[in-house]
Design brief:
Elements (H helix, E strand, L loop, with lengths): L7 E5 L4 H16 L3 E6 L2 H9 L3 E4 L1 H8 L23 H17 L4 H10 L3 E4 L4 H9 L4 E4 L25 H28 L5 H4 L6 H6 L17 E3 L15 E2 L17 H13 L3 E6 L8 H12 L4 E6 L4 H5 L7 E4 L4 H6 L3 E4 L3 H9 L4 E3 L7 H10 L3 E3 L7 H13 L1 H16 L2 H14 L8
Parallel strand pairs: 1-2, 1-4, 2-3, 4-5, 5-6, 6-7, 8-9, 8-11, 9-10, 11-12, 12-13
Helix pairs in contact: 1-18, 11-16
Length: 470
């Protein structure tokens, strides 16, 4: 426990930037309430971000070194080459290669002694970690530390889209038959998802995480927490508390274990740590053009996607051809290569930008479907064109924006210069999208997600769950 009157709360994170950015403002809110908050991660970027925000941080150096020693996933060939890509039901080739990579990663990181040492030293009243970090969950449970799940990537990969109930933000009511049809669509959706996940688990995901950490995890502890001893891609840990910082309007209804949904976390106090040098000068010049009546289109590929040159070129070509539009692209690690190219005069490329400042002045945001960018765009009432190409949650995120009438979506196979230009023109020229986004903005802000999440975490940290005493 903390010696400062509050409790010690640990955020054990893989370092996914989206998760870190969502937790940092919550961590600051917890510190203002008198708690000690420590971010523990093998990611130097996560640790640096936490320290820049005034939170405590511990870098798992040995874990980082073990992970760095692994060959990159691309060097792990899929069985039978490209033939397995065309088998029905599941993409066995890519998933098989991924499974072997993650199995090797699990073996490399199976030594959790460093993590257990950190937990003993910090003696936290509560540990928060992501629901897909199975190794860390097993280690924390084995160490008999109170644990709650913070965020997860709920799988939403049906095509087309995710079915929705009859109600939406801009169509508030439906007939009785509409509601019956909607319920039937949901039941079919979850049934198909269950069959698909079982098939994937049988083919390529048979990694038994319980046996990997059997010496650390007391089976009685696992049973008591209601945990699932085998990883079947259900992200299902039964009775463990689960906090999800998502707008309820964008949440998945009908989940087996209902999480505590606190509302969106948008960090309006986020600093400019890591922003490209020279951005401020370019931004000042760009704002003069916006003040003269031009409109801004913001393209972001998220925090971990790179090498998407074809997609980037298509979107930039389509956007640059629109009259009266300025384009600002945040391309992360790809930015230096794009700066060397001959770009249109109305296109500016950066690596990292102060995203909230840019979105606030934007007319349209183009995204790959990340939840943070979706929340931030809606926070400022800006419609979104989503092109979900990676991750298990992005198709569902995109479908929800379409459902509420605040965005458009293109599937990867539909992307072309003409298609992107057509969708952008729709979002720019139809005032209904911006009006509905403004309405949804008021709803999202009213949730006060940061304080709600901090309150939920604080209540868990101060509780004394039966059976957790070490």
């Amino acid at each position: 426990m903390s010696d400062r009157g509050g409790t010690t709360i640990v955020h054990l994170t893989s370092g996914v930037v989206g998760y870190v950015h969502r937790f940092l403002p919550i961590g600051r809110a917890l510190q203002r309430r008198g708690h000690r908050v420590v971010v523990v991660s093998a990611s130097e970027r996560a640790v640096d971000s936490a320290r820049a925000d005034g939170l405590g941080a511990v870098h798992l150096a040995r874990q980082a070194a073990a992970f760095a020693a692994l060959p990159p996933p691309a060097s792990w060939p899929a069985p039978l080459g490209s033939l397995t890509r065309y088998l029905p039901g599941v993409a066995l080739g890519p998933r098989g290669a991924a499974r072997r990579y993650w199995a090797a990663r699990a073996d490399a990181l199976a030594d959790v002694a460093e993590l257990l040492e950190v937990l003993r030293e910090l003696d936290p009243a509560l540990v928060l970690t992501e629901a897909e970090e199975h190794r860390d969950i097993r280690a924390v449970l084995g160490a008999r530390r109170p644990l709650a799940l913070f965020e997860d990537l709920y799988a939403t990969r049906p095509d087309p889209g995710v079915p929705f109930p009859a109600r939406s933000h801009h169509v508030p009511t439906g007939t009785a038959m509409d509601r019956v049809r909607a319920a039937a669509r949901w039941q079919r959706f979850f049934a198909v998802e269950a069959v698909r996940r079982r098939a994937e688990a049988w083919w390529v995901d048979g990694r038994d995480w319980h046996s990997t950490l059997a010496t650390l995890c007391d089976p009685a502890v696992l049973d008591e927490a209601g945990t699932n001893r085998r990883y079947l891609q259900f992200y299902d840990y039964g009775a463990l508390p689960h906090i999800r910082t998502v707008a309820p309007e964008l949440a998945v209804p009908g989940e087996r274990h209902r999480p505590t949904v606190t509302g969106p976390v948008v960090d309006t106090e986020r600093g400019t740590h890591g922003v490209d040098e020279g951005f401020d000068a370019a931004w000042a010049a760009l704002q003069h053009r916006l003040d003269d009546g031009e409109r801004l289109l913001y393209l972001t590929l998220g925090t971990f996607l790179s090498g998407l040159d074809d997609l980037t070129a298509t979107v930039l070509d389509a956007a640059a051809s629109l009259e009266g539009v300025q384009v600002l692209a945040a391309l992360g690690e790809d930015a230096p290569r794009w700066r060397d190219r001959a770009l249109p005069a109305n296109v500016a490329v950066f690596g990292r930008v102060p995203q909230l400042r840019v979105i606030e002045r934007s007319a349209v945001v183009v995204s790959t479907g990340g939840l943070n960018t979706g929340h931030e765009a809606l926070w400022f009432g800006v419609p979104v064109l989503n092109i979900p190409i990676a991750g298990v949650d992005t198709p569902g995120n995109a479908a929800r924006l379409v459902h509420h009438g605040v965005g458009r979506r293109l599937r990867r196979r539909e992307v072309s210069v003409d298609a992107v230009r057509r969708e952008l023109r729709t979002l720019l020229d139809d005032p209904g999208y911006r009006e509905r986004a403004a309405q949804l903005s008021h709803s999202l802000r009213a949730w006060n997600g940061i304080e709600r999440a901090a309150g939920a975490i604080e209540a868990l940290a101060r509780a004394e769950p039966a059976g957790w005493a070490g």
